[in-house]
Design a protein that fits this description.
Layout lengths: L1 E7 L3 H13 L6 E4 L4 H7 L5 H8 L3 E6 L11 H8 L4 E6 L16 E6 L9 E3 L4 E3 L5 H16 L4 E6 L5 H16 L3 E6 H10 L6 E4 L1 H14 L7 E5 L4 E5 L16 H13 L3 H16 L13 H11 L1
Parallel strand pairs: 1-2, 1-3, 3-12, 5-10, 8-9, 8-10
Antiparallel strand pairs: 4-5, 4-11, 6-7, 11-12
Helix pairs in contact: 1-9, 1-11, 5-6, 7-8, 9-10, 10-11
Bound molecules: 1,4-dihydronicotinamide adenine dinucleotide and magnesium ion.
């Protein structure tokens, strides 16, 4: 397997090397192609990613991505958005399961749900107009785009509780009733039961009753917001991984950003990045190795070897070294 490695900026440059040290502990012979992409490059060259970078990435099988700081330029186009679009990474998969000994903000300790977010269209279609006194963003919801994300959710549901929750705002948005109807059709064809939730009610209920949910399917912007809500439920941004999956490529990334407030201090929590490597191994068929990462992470958390965001005083590399050692 050929892996493009994009640490990006800020703590991306700390958590990705930490996660790679855990990957290296398996000795799987994965070829790593390091790429310098992001805000630093934009400052030096005026471009955060080049066409040559895209060519190199498209010759790899998958990408491990840290985070990229958004440059203060109104014309800047998000690198991550470009990667998701050009590699057609249409499914953003974010699992949320409580890790051992993590203090959670909700009473419920028993939950295990996955947000399946459409990743290429919706409010992030890129179809926008900025005028003097008005601005437009076109929300594009296509049948093909909705069908393939709904199918992804149903395939996942078949291996879990055979149930999906469709999150939308069909009471006010026609594009949402379209999305919902496509999802219901897909659920019925696949023999999967479904429930609908309005996005605002969902944000409320997910915080109070995360245990009620299993596979959640939704559109791009709603999925973006709901997954940060879910990260808080699961104990913090430093713990939550994600996978961006298409037919041919995949990209794995912690859901947090470049955290300029703590960058360079060596205290960023590497667990979200390490669990992103776990998702990559699962995707590549190394299921046993993937499971051993979860086990090692939980064991290190039980030993209270944690970074300051979890109340500990260990460094990024202390945590990753403890996990790598168990592996
Ligand atoms: P952020 O996720 O970088 O940070 C939010 C808060 O969580 C900060 O207080 C930070 O210190 C903390 N935090 C995040 N990850 C952590 C970790 N691993 N360990 C310990 N604490 C952690 O979000 P923010 O501040 O809104 O964005 C910062 C920059 O990152 C912006 O330029 C933003 O555009 C970019 N960003 C990039 C993303 C990406 O490339 N995927 C995603 C989100 C934001
Ligand atoms: Mg987000």
């Amino acid at each position: 397997m050929k892996l493009a490695v994009i640490p990006g900026d800020g703590i991306g440059r700390e958590v990705i090397p930490a996660a790679l040290s855990v990957l290296d502990a398996f000795g799987l012979g994965i070829e790593k192609i390091p790429l310098d992409i992001g805000y630093g490059k934009w400052e030096r060259t005026g471009s955060a990613i080049t066409n040559e970078d895209m060519d190199i990435i498209s010759e790899c099988d998958c990408v491990l991505f840290g985070a990229i700081t958004t440059p203060p330029d109104p014309n800047y186009k998000s690198v991550l958005m470009r990667l998701r679009k050009e590699l057609d990474l249409y499914a953003n998969i974010r699992p949320f399961v409580p890790l051992k000994s993590i203090r959670l903000p909700c009473d419920t300790k028993e939950f295990d749900f996955v947000i399946v977010r459409e990743n290429t269209e919706g409010m992030y279609s890129g179809v926008e107009e900025l005028h003097e006194d008005v601005a437009y963003t076109t929300r594009v919801i296509t049948r093909a785009g909705s069908e393939r994300i709904a199918e992804r959710a149903c395939i996942l549901a078949k291996s879990r509780k055979k149930h999906i929750t469709i999150v939308h705002k069909a009471n006010v948005l026609k594009s949402c009733s379209f999305f919902r109807d496509v999802c219901i059709g897909s659920a019925q064809r696949n023999g999967i039961s479904h429930r609908e939730m309005l996005m605002d009610a969902m944000a409320y209920d997910l915080i109070l009753h995360p245990e009620r949910y299993d596979v959640i399917v939704t559109t791009n912007l709603f999925g973006d917001i709901l997954s940060d809500v879910a990260a808080a439920i699961a104990g913090g941004l430093g713990l939550c991984p994600s996978a961006n999956i298409g037919e041919r490529y995949a990209l794995f990334e912690p859901i947090h950003g470049s955290a300029p407030d703590i960058a360079g201090k060596g205290i960023a929590n590497p667990i979200a990045a390490i669990l992103s490597v776990k998702m990559m191994l699962e995707w590549g068929g190394w299921v046993e190795e993937a499971n051993s990462i979860t086990k090692a992470v939980n064991s290190v958390l039980c030993d209270r070897i944690t970074t300051p965001d979890l109340g500990g005083s260990y460094s990024t590399t202390d945590v990753s070294a403890a996990i790598a050692k168990l592996i």
